[in-house]
Amino acid sequence: MTSQLLATLIAGVLVVGIAVALAIYVIRHYVVRSATWRKAPGRIVATRLDAAEHPRTGARLFGAHVSYEYQVGGRTYHGHRINPDYIYTNREAFHREILKRYQEGKQVTVYYNPKNPTEAYLELGIPKVLLALMALAVVFMLTVFAVLVEMVAEYAGAGQ
After folding, report:
1. pLDDT at 159
2. Any transmembrane segments, and where (predicted)?
């Protein structure tokens, strides 16, 4: 193996390592939020399936629009955020399933920020996209580590 390949692998590990460290920091933020946010009883007041066109690709995107109300300190608040990583996608059935979970009139638990009760979600937790990216980064780092171990063993064997 060449020293250029070794340098490239080490640089790759460093970049992915920094990305993993950043992801851990962001995950910590979500964990702290989940632990410090409060719960309030709420009620679904309206739902609909939205459809939009992607501005660049023209693909048809769907999203579940869920409006809910909840009370904090005797004051009524209104929200529409489902979870921190919810986005429109081209998977219409996925969004219809969300609408089935949150039907109009249903009593729900709303998670809100005690410092700013207007900031609320129906679901809290670590975003699945972030967990998937973390898993991919770990697999990449383990693979590169295995290649580096093999390279060192090969280099040590060639030196004898």
Report:
1. 59
2. 6-27, 129-149
Q: 59 lies in a domain?
A: yes
Query: In terms of domains, do 40 and 118 share one?
Result: yes
Per the structure block, which two tokens stand in for 28? 């910590």
Residues 47 and 100 in one domain: yes
The model's pTM is 0.66
pLDDT tens, residue by residue, 1-37: 567 777 777 787 778 778 777 777 777 777 777 778 9
Residues 115 and 142 in one domain: no
- Collect all residues with Cβ–Cβ distance below 8 Å to 60 and sequence separation of at least 6: 51, 52, 53, 54, 90
Q: 22, 13, 30: which is closest to 134 by C-alpha?
A: 22
User: Worst-scoring range by mean pLDDT, 21-25, 67-71, 125-129, 139-143?
Assistant: 125-129
